[in-house]
């Protein structure tokens, strides 16, 4: 049955005021970080409450359609059920109806050696659940106000236009933030770490932003193809093109796919609508609009960042959804409580890394895990029935764009979450009102459908619900999960806070979020630092609530290292296995506990990081445990035969044996075999890294030690013309030539080195100092002194150079110059007696030279 919409010649003032308030609510909720912060959500709720009261108080009774009634009833019942989840119950009652939740509450205070509270809630995060009550009230009030506004065709158009304009403004703001290099949202809000500069925007999550872009896109495309549109089609088509380009720039894979699906659905349903002959003219706009949108998509795809993000193949969120559904099996009837997913899911997550999942990124898993199977399935079925495709046909003008926005958002939320963002949901609620608004046409048979006939009652209930919800969340502002995490971490490192004061703060936080693992972990941090209580109960509760919690193993390893090194090494290994980000730190701490090869292997994780850990251990114990290092290098090569670092170390070892002579009798007695072994290693290294300078130096050095010095020096000299580190190569060439007693080749290498040039003072000083040392070794003291002076001119405050110049000046009998350099050293270090003694000695020598009779 086609519904009847009111279209009075003169639009009532309340309609204008209602539209303005709803437009403000949509804008504030979207641009205000999606209203995810409770204070902004309170302001938005107040606005929509005023809008609802304005639209209903004193208005004429109306008969709404059954679909609208179903949506109102479902939303109200869900909000009421959410409120029920936050109402305290006796622990015995909870044990009978939700034993898993009761167990979590009972053990919440075990780190304090206390029993759990006697009155608890169904929700495992009552503070978050009360915020969800506020969100539910905001959605109900938004729908009540919007369904009244949208009952008039002009109101529906204004509401749809507000959604599109907000989407365009949101998208442009998101584009301008990175364009101007902004690191804060609107230059005010700092999102902290984890948000790339490209995604600094009013909606920080690209999936949320993509969802809003799609809502605006579908509504705008529906308006462009509508048979009778109050908005010029050119404007609607322009909005479609802009939003399509912005959508691809956002680079959400699910968002782009949902946009394409939305475009196809809008065109299909518009094609089916033949109620007016002008529909064909409306469809004529589809081809140019979609072609322009396609051009915009191709243009944006040409940017490397967007293309890279769109072509990512990460499917880890599918495992997240599976795990979330698995969690639901432990809380099948009542769920963990609306909003409690973040603190509860840590006990069920898999994979590596220290990650916090705020949502399962799937609306079905979200509802089932937080509300339980019965409520989630009944609510989902009711909403799907109310918004079935025929619901948009019941109006005198089909709300195709709004309905498609709802349909694509539902599909998009199966792989990306945006339904948990109030700013996005308020736009979807407005779309639902556009679809289901209008008079029912006949007098409803059921009393439940007559609620709209009592506008004063609706207005009063709206005012009461809005005010009550805002007051309900006020005690929890500043005490939500993120706030308590930050506060307790700060307290854990506050040396002025005593144990009892910390316990009071921890107790209150853990009773607000009994399933959260970070809160007891903060207690473990404090206990391990202050050492005034055992840290074990805190760690035990942490790992009980989050079996994969790498920082806990790191802290545990640090604490027990003095008492149980073997257990500590195990904890360090677990930290490495559970988090790639902790591999280096955990291994570095564990190396201090390594005394032999077996100890070292206890630190090696059974992950892809094993080779990196073995290499790190090998480098760290090189001098302390050389034989263990040999075995570790053998282990690395057994796992990866083409590993360059251990091969290079083997080659250096052979070279060292050759140079050691009698000190390495195993090589001295079979020198030819040692040389062959060295060349075999060098050949393997040359095949693996032909451009490596270290490999070239090793090969040349082996030839020198093997008796073929000329060939070795020639090979390295040629390599110096091709390698990137030419200066380093020439230094190695000069050193090798000196070792081979080839003074001519050494001098030639030094000459090439002085002509090689340098890019900065640091490199120049390094080259000049090296050449000066080489000349000094050759007996050219004067040349060495001049070179050191040139180096000192580039870095006048380099104490090592000042000392070198002073000593050479003394050697050459230049006591006046030496006195000046010793004076500079004495000024830099007035308490160092060496330089004062040097000044006095050189002053006396200078005086002696002055009065020495001429020869």
Question: Your description of this structure?
Answer:
Residues 274-288 and 295-307 have low confidence and may be disordered. Helix 2 (38-56) packs parallel to helix 6 (126-149). The protein is mainly α and 855 residues long. A two-stranded antiparallel sheet has the order 1-2. The protein contains 42 helices and two strands. The longest helix is centred in the N-terminal third of the chain and has 27 residues, at 153-179. 67% of the residues lie in helices and 0% in strands.
Keywords:
mainly alpha, two-stranded antiparallel sheet, 0% strand, 855 residues
The strand count comes to 2
The largest sheet has its strands arranged as 1-2
Cα shape: elongated
Indicate the proportion of strand residues: under 5%
Binned, the helix content reads: 55-70%
| Average pLDDT rating | 85
Largest sheet: 2 strands, antiparallel
Number of helices: 42
**How far apart are the termini?**
130 Å
Label the structural class. mainly alpha
Q: What is the CA-based Rg, rounded?
A: 38 Å
Low-confidence stretches: 274-288, 295-307
The quaternary structure here is single chain
């Amino acid at each position: 049955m086609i519904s009847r919409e009111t279209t009075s010649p003169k639009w009532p003032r309340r309609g204008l005021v209602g539209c303005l308030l709803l437009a403000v609510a949509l804008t504030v909720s979207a641009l205000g970080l999606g209203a995810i912060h409770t204070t902004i959500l309170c302001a938005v709720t107040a606005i929509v409450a005023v809008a609802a009261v304005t639209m209903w108080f004193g208005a004429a009774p109306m008969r709404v359609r059954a679909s609208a009634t179903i949506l109102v009833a479902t939303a109200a019942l869900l909000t009421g059920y959410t409120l029920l989840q936050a109402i305290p119950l006796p622990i015995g009652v909870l044990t009978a109806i939700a034993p898993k939740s009761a167990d979590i509450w009972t053990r919440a205070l075990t780190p304090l050696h206390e029993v759990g509270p006697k009155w608890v809630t169904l929700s495992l995060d009552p503070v978050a659940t009360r915020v969800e009550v506020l969100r539910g009230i905001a959605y109900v009030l938004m729908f009540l106000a919007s369904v009244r506004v949208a009952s008039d065709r002009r109101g529906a158009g204004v509401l749809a236009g507000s959604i599109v304009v907000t989407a365009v403004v949101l998208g442009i703001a998101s584009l301008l933030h990175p364009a101007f290099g902004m690191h804060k949202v609107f230059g005010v809000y700092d999102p902290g770490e984890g948000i790339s500069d490209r995604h600094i925007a009013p909606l920080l999550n690209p999936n949320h932003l993509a969802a809003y872009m799609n809502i605006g896109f579908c509504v705008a495309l529906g308006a462009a193809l509508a048979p009778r549109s109050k908005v010029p089609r050119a404007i609607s088509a322009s909005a479609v093109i802009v939003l399509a380009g912005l959508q691809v720039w956002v680079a959400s894979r699910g968002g782009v796919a949902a946009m394409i699906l939305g475009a196809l659905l809008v065109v299909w349903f518009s094609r089916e609508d033949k109620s007016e002959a002008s529909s064909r003219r409306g469809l004529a706009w589809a081809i140019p609009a979609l072609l322009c949108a396609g051009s915009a998509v191709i243009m944006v795809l040409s940017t490397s960042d967007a293309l890279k993000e769109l072509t990512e193949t990460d499917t880890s969120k599918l495992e997240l959804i599976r795990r979330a559904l698995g969690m639901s099996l432990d809380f099948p009837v009542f769920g963990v409580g609306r909003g409690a997913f973040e603190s509860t899911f840590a006990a069920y997550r898999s994979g590596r890394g220290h990650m916090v999942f705020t949502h399962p990124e799937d609306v079905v898993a979200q509802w089932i895990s937080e509300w339980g199977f019965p409520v989630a399935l009944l609510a989902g079925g009711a909403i799907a029935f109310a918004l079935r495709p025929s619901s948009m046909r019941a109006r005198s003008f089909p709300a195709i764009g709004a309905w498609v926005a709802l349909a694509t958002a539902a599909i998009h939320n199966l792989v990306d979450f945006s339904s948990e963002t109030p700013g996005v949901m308020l736009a979807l609620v407005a779309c639902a009102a556009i679809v289901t608004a209008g008079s029912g046409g006949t007098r409803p048979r059921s009393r439940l459908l007559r609620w709209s006939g009592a506008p004063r009652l609706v207005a009063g209930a709206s005012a009461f619900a809005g005010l009550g919800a805002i007051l309900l969340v006020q005690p929890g502002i500043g005490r939500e999960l993120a706030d308590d995490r930050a506060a307790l971490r700060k307290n854990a490192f506050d040396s002025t806070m005593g144990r009892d004061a910390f316990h009071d703060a921890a107790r209150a936080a853990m009773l607000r979020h009994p399933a959260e693992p970070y809160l007891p972990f903060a207690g473990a941090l404090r206990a391990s630092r202050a050492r005034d209580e055992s840290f074990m109960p805190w760690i035990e509760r942490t790992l009980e609530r989050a079996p994969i919690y790498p920082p806990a193993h790191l802290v545990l390893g640090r604490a027990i290292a003095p008492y149980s090194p073997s257990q500590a090494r195990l904890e360090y290994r677990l930290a490495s296995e559970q988090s790639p980000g902790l591999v280096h730190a955990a291994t570095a701490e564990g190396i201090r506990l390594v005394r032999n090869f077996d100890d070292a292997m206890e630190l090696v994780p059974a992950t892809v990081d094993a080779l990196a850990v073995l290499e790190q251990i090998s480098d760290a114990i090189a001098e302390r445990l050389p034989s263990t290092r040999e075995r570790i290098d053998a282990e690395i090569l057994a796992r990866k035969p083409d590993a360059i670092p251990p091969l290079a170390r083997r080659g250096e070892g052979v070279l060292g044996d050759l140079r050691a002579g009698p000190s390495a009798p195993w090589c001295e007695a079979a020198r030819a075999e040692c040389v062959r072994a060295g060349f075999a290693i060098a050949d393997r290294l040359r095949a693996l890294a032909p451009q490596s300078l270290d490999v070239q130096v090793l090969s040349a050095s082996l030839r020198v030690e093997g008796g073929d010095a000329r060939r070795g020096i020639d090979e390295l000299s040629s390599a110096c013309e091709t390698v990137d580190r030419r200066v380093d190569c020439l230094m190695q060439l000069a050193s090798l030539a000196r070792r081979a007693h080839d003074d001519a080749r050494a001098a030639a290498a030094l000459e090439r080195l002085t002509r090689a040039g340098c890019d900065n003072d640091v490199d120049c000083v390094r080259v000049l100092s090296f050449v000066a040392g080489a000349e000094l070794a050759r007996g050219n003291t004067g040349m060495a002194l001049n070179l050191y002076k040139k180096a000192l001119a580039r870095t006048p405050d380099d104490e090592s150079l000042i000392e070198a110049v002073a000593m050479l000046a003394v050697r050459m009998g230049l006591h006046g110059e030496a006195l000046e350099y010793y004076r500079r050293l004495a000024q830099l270090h007035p308490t160092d007696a060496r330089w004062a003694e040097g000044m006095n000695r050189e002053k006396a020598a200078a005086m002696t030279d002055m009065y020495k009779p001429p020869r």
